[in-house]
Sequence to fold (222 residues):
Amino acid sequence: MTKNTLYLREMGMDDKTIETNIKNHRVRVIDNIDIEYKGQRYNMFFEFTIGEHFYMRRTNKRTGAPLKKPVKEIILKNGLFIDTEYRRYNKRSDGNFDPCCYRQGALEKEFYLEHFDYSKESVLEVVNRYKIGEPFTDICLIETTAKEIIKTKGGYREKDILGEGKDFNTEGDSYFMIGSTWNDDHKIIRCNKRTWEPKDNGRQLTVVDHCDIDLITGQITG
Fold:
């Protein structure tokens, strides 16, 4: 990983049938990105999802006559959708300030109309277009990368914590979270193992073990 790597969290469902190089339905930035758009500066949050880009055709292609029912025309099957958010502080009558969140709809529409596909390359192009400072040159999907480190460098315990192939209803699951250190030298992701434990008259998922993965050095600790 380099200092110009863009780190994305995989927030949706993993799906190997997705035809691009992002195999998750929803990803988002870890850190907001400073951009300048139409003369205004923003500390912008980005989230990206996959979906069809389409329009409803209302006329006959050959004659131009109106159709009785609109026909859905697919422009791009694996299209990129963008959600943005930024914060502004609005002054109250008492002189204090309230934080308010907004989206930049014009920017979202601009990229939609260019019909980017849902890929790492498209995400890089989107975030770099108006980014202030050095552009990002690479993308790290943090959960995917952490899993690969555990699979290649982890021992039996770490692979058991990851728990791939286990039955959720009987054996529990695992999940990732940002660890205690996230800076230019070390970016730590924690993998938590959860099992079903008795709770009152039922049961609940309880964290019983964990390990920490450094995305920069590739080391596993904990």
Residues 142-221 form one domain. The chain has five helices and eleven strands. Helices lie at 105-112, 120-129, 142-153, 156-162, 168-171. The chain has two domains: 5-136, 142-221.
